[in-house]
Amino acid sequence: MCGIIGYIGNKQVIPVILNGLSNLEYRGYDSAGIAYLENSNINIYKAQGKLQNLKNKTENITANNSLNIGIGHIRWATHGVPNETNAHPHTSCFNKIALVHNGIIENYKELKDDLVKKGYNIQSQTDTEIIVHLIEEKLKEMPDKTTAIRNTLNDLDGAYALGIVFADEPETFFAARKSAPLIVGIGEGENFIASDVPATLEYTKKVIYLEDNEIAKLTKDNVEIFNKKNEKIEKKVELIPWEPVAIDKMGYKHFMLKEIHEQPNVVRQTLSDKLHSSEELVQLNEVKLNEEDLKKLERIQIIACGSSLHAAMVGKYIIEELVEIPVDVEASSEYIYKKNITGKNSLTIGISQSGETADTLTAIRQSKEKGSHALIITNRVDSTMAREADSLLPINAGIEVSVAATKSYTAQLLALYLLALNLAEIKKSVSNEKLTILKEELLKTPQQIEIMLSNKKAIQKCARKYYDTRDFIYIARGINFPAALEGALKLKEISYINATGYPAGELKHGPIAMLDNTIPVLSVLVPGTVYEKVLSNSEESKARDANIIAVTSSEDEKLESIFDYIIRIPQTDELISPIITTVPLQLLAYYIAEFLGKDVDQPRNLAKSVTVE
Ligand code: F6R
Questions:
Q1: How far apart are CA 377 and CA 567, in angstroms?
Q2: Which of 4, 132, 249, 445 could, after both became Cys, cross-link 99 (CB 3.0–4.6 A)?
Q3: Which pLDDT score, from 0 to 100, does residue 64 have?
Q4: Protein residue whose Cα sits closest to atom 4 of ligand 1
């Protein structure tokens, strides 16, 4: 949430900053801003809303310098509404310092009161602006910039990644981090800072990962890093092993639609790496627990947020079913503020597309402190979570641009299935026959998703029928209950329709009171252990006048006379079915949002990487 970038070198600073911010726009789009130096003055441009507004404002401007230096920001509002005053960069009283910030300063109110008493004129409602005035204040007593910044940081509670420029030091800029991601990009005669590697990858593959409490001082030819005691330290320069990815919709109207269509190949690619045939063992060398430790495992906990949490819920079903180890699933934001009874002989699995979600990161750190082994399932092998993992299981879904998770969710599911199969093989908790059948079913999934995608018309028609509803209910039981939650989340986040997922059996314990002919109820109905039960729960909804929709692989003829609308999915084994059932729900959400004319890829109030608690 929020992205920052900084540059010093001989290139024109505005295009470099704007280009970097384009690659960070997934972190927020409430406002954008840039500060750059020109003849020892700080010039600032800010615009409310998407980055394009800032691009329009700065289109004909070039900095008139031989050495260029500047910082930029993309905002996801935490304190203060999204307007230009609250947009970063924030400046000191006489425009001598400009600063960009990602994070939250928790004690900003006390610090602000103090500054106001001292006569500082605070213009914005943000928690950020106080930082720049604090530096201004400290500089009165300690002219060395690194010392003044360090003393300011010592006063701050909370999380920050900062970029700072000073009008009287046009050949240097500064950065600092605590509990928010920040990299330093090392170029030839130029250097960068950024919240994330893609912002600078076009210019350099060499990076230093800043750690908590470190300050970086950058000139065009040099980078110095200081630790908490302000001692200069040496840091490893790492080489990013990937190429910049062209972010392209490839002819699709939205990234979300493109990413939904990428799912068969994402699944196929992972299976070709890790599961060659139904007769062979799963090739999962990423889990760094030895066989003895794995056999001793008494408990597994899976921690995640949002869609990743729904993947975790499927993981619980599949691991408990195949491995017979109790699995607890918890939302990271709940996990971190309660008694932690994790310990040795437990495995903590953290799932995160971005690998940066603040709550999940904190939860993983807490469980590691208690002695639990941390296995991270992520799409970003360069993320903070990946770097802190005891075991790292990458999902290799490729860059996901749309804020709503689709292909990363399916890839997370696949990682959990492969893990469960691998553990079952090691623990010999399931017969070889059953393992072979499940592997056969898993190997069919890319093709089944393809069949699903080739049948989009039926889903489009369903979307047309129901797009103007205000509420939507999704029900399912067992291993598909998380699919109902995920379908509802997809719909609410991109269409703003009030969609809720319930375990089908819970409907009659309260929610059924809401039902009438204005609320459609969608059931995920897969033949197997709970088929008849979900069918009865759907009928109960119909009896209350609700319009009922089925997403089903059943060929049961009576369904035609029961449901108002049926979305057919390919035949699939119940245990493997969540990999298939979620796809039509993603498409349904997509088409409804499209009919409503919503901003599908960048829904309001959201950001792709949630780096604040
Ligand atoms: C929903 C969505 C979010 C994320 C959640 C966790 O479509 O994308 O709910 O799943 O913010 O993010 P990660 O997986 O990056 O930890």
A1: 31
A2: 132
A3: 83
A4: 306
Cα dihedral: 271, 274, 280, 282 (round 10):
-120
d(CA 499, CA 491): 6
Model confidence, pTM:
0.92
Atom index in ligand 1 nearest the CA of residue 408 equals 14
Do 411 and 484 share a structural domain?
A: no
Q: Is residue 608 annotated as a catalytic residue, yes or no?
A: yes
Residue 480 DSSP label = G
Domain that holds residue 564: 456-595
Nearest Cα residue to 543 out of 504, 511, 515? 515
Is the Cβ atom of 260 under 6 angstroms away from ligand 1? Answer: no
Catalytic pick among 145, 274, 439, 608: 608
Kindly list the distances between the CA atom of residue 450 and the CA atoms of 111, 446, 483, 586, in Å, as whole numbers in the listed order. Answer: 56, 6, 18, 14
What stretches of 519-604 show up as alpha helix (H) in DSSP? 531-543, 559-562, 578-595
CA distance 599 to 603: 5
Three-class secondary structure of residue 153 per DSSP: helix
Ligand 1, atom nearest to 360 Cα: 16
Domain end marker among 220, 245, 270: 245
Max distance between CA atoms of the chain, in angstroms, equals 82
Residues 52 and 28 in one domain: yes
Kindly report, residue by residue over 323-336, the tens digit of the pLDDT: 999 999 999 999 99
Cα–Cα distance measured from residue 583 to residue 306, given in angstroms and rounded to the nearest whole number: 17
601, part of any domain: no
Q: Is 462 a catalytic residue?
A: no
pLDDT digits 0-9 by tens, 60-74: 998 888 889 999 999
Give the pLDDT confidence score for residue 340 in this predicted structure: 87
Is there a single domain that holds both residue 556 and residue 498?
A: yes
> Is the CB of 480 within 6 Å of ligand 1?
no
**CB 352 less than 6 A from any atom of ligand 1:** yes
Mutate to test the pocket of ligand 1, among 357, 409, 494 (most ligand atoms within 8 A of CB): 357
Q: What is the pLDDT of residue 405?
A: 98
Which pair of tokens denotes residue 397? 């879904």
Instruction: Answer yes or no: do 233 and 264 share one domain.
Output: no
Residue 605: inside a domain: no
